[in-house]
Amino acid sequence: MKYNVIILFVSLLAFTGMSCEKDHDCVEQETYYMVFGHFYGECAGDGCVEIYKVANEKLYEETSNQYPGDEFYPFQEFETLSDAKYELVKDLENEVPEELWNETQTVVGIPDGGDWGGAYFEISSTRGHRYFLLDQNDNNMSAVYNAFVDRINEKIAIINQ
Which of 27, 34, 149 has its CA nearest to residue 77? Predict the structure, then answer.
């Protein structure tokens, strides 16, 4: 019985390691990670949807450019960015407002409601898994959320320098 469990475990490890596509980096479903970005629906060009993931002490850029809409989107196509860029954004997790952890809505404000864009934020930590679509218009959310959206946009600007 003990050997059957070991064989099963090793088989599962081998199978899960083979599930990554060759064109994209493998970013496994980590227990602890953070996804952040912004999106603009009435937009043309490369900067319309910019989503990044911090996991395993690495920074990844999401490559599908999938517009998040108004619900959870499980981003899965990533390319690894430099360690230097990771160092510039890794502290964003420490800036999550406490109010956001207590927020009951996943859509806060009217993200991209008037072509002003929205911000995406997702986190999985010891406190649980949460995701949010946040408004870019300062008049539609509280100041603490606006400040956090500003930080997300600042981190994106830093990455793109």
Answer: 27
